[in-house]
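Note to self: keep these together.
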Amino acid sequence: MTGFARPVRRWVPPLSGTELVTVLDRLRGWSPFDGCALLDDLAAVLDDVPPPEEDTTQLAERLRGHLARLVTIAVAGEAERDPTAAQLVVRARILHADRLPCGRQEAIAHLRRLGWTANELHDRLTVIRCLKEAA
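Structure:
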């Protein structure tokens, strides 16, 4: 028997060309979670000696990036079912939206809030197995 006994529908791609371009753009803009980089940045902002003033803006941006990735991991892993993780996600979103204050002491305090929240969220996601522990 060389043919099909019944007609087969023609294959239709699941996404349009525009949707595929959107997916490709998102993939190109994606950066994976780097636990070691997170730990390095946490050490820089949570150390007894505050980071140099010229590094505060860059550290704040990197910590915001870590928080965004951790929140994405939490949402994808349905971690918000855990009350502690849900509170940390809310706090991370609020801090992510906050701007870096102008004064030196206020900026350091903000960096430390970003750092503690990222650290706690990372730890919680590890405990509830949404994330492997960073090296």
